[in-house]
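Dear colleagues,

I hope this message finds you well. In preparation for our joint manuscript, I am sending the DDE family transposase (Aquabacter spiritensis) sequence together with its predicted structure, so that both groups work from identical material. I would be grateful if you could confirm receipt.
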Amino acid sequence: MPCGTFEANAVFFAIGALTYNLYLGFRSDTLDGGWERAQVQTVRWRLFQTAGKVVRHGRQLFLKISAEALEIFARIRERCARIMKEGGAVPETS
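The corresponding structure tokens are as follows:
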């Protein structure tokens, strides 16, 4: 365990459980195709370890990435925007 007290370890565990549940929601709501059963490490590797090149042009910074990666990010962004427009994916509780 990362901490010396029970309470701190309980908070650490709760944050980990919340993070995992948020990941499952993200995966089911925004990813498709071969991503349905992908584990956390796979998604993290395929999304965040994408090769790119930072380019400066006209006092602006740009990130150049492959067309495939751009398509994946655009699809995820579109689905996230649709979820936000619909009022979120989490049902309200009363």
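For the figure legend, we might mention the following. Residues 30 and 78 are 9 Å apart (CA to CA). The chain is about 55% helix and 15% strand.

With kind regards,
E.M.
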